[in-house]
């Protein structure tokens, strides 16, 4: 995974458990690493008690397989928050858009990568 600030990706030899972020690499075990810039941003949002949801590619990764994404996206809306999932990212507590809402958002966007995510999200059911 890389962010707008750069960075590198690692690939996994096995799929991570669904509904959990893949762990950092421990040397022989390849895994996706969390982006420290995003961890800092999420920590700041939490410290300021901002209400947000992780959406987009990062939310799709949470439910499916690691894949490349250039950014992190967030939304602030109450009805989706009620259906969101609590987890952590790099040890920082966060909320991720619920899977059904994510599928609806991805379908509405309709871009090729979004539709690819929809297929993968629906395969995980």
Task: Describe the model.
With 125 residues, this protein is α+β, with helices and mostly antiparallel strands. It has one domain (36-123). It contains 5 helices and 4 strands; from the N terminus they run H-E-H-E-H-E-E-H-H. The chain has helices at 36-47, 56-63, 78-82, 99-109, 112-123, and strands at 53-55, 73-75, 85-89, 92-96. The strands form 2 sheets. A two-stranded antiparallel sheet has the order 1-2. A two-stranded antiparallel sheet has the order 3-4. Helix 4 runs antiparallel to helix 5 (112-123). The radius of gyration is 14 Å and the shape is globular. The relative contact order is 0.17. Mean pLDDT is 75; it is low at 1-14 and 23-31.
- Give the N-terminus to C-terminus distance in angstroms: 24 Å
Helix-strand category: alpha+beta
Order of helices and strands: HEHEHEEHH
Major sheet details: 2 strands, antiparallel
Query: Helix segment count?
Result: 5
Strand fraction: 5-15%
Overall 3D geometry? Answer: globular
Domain tally = 1
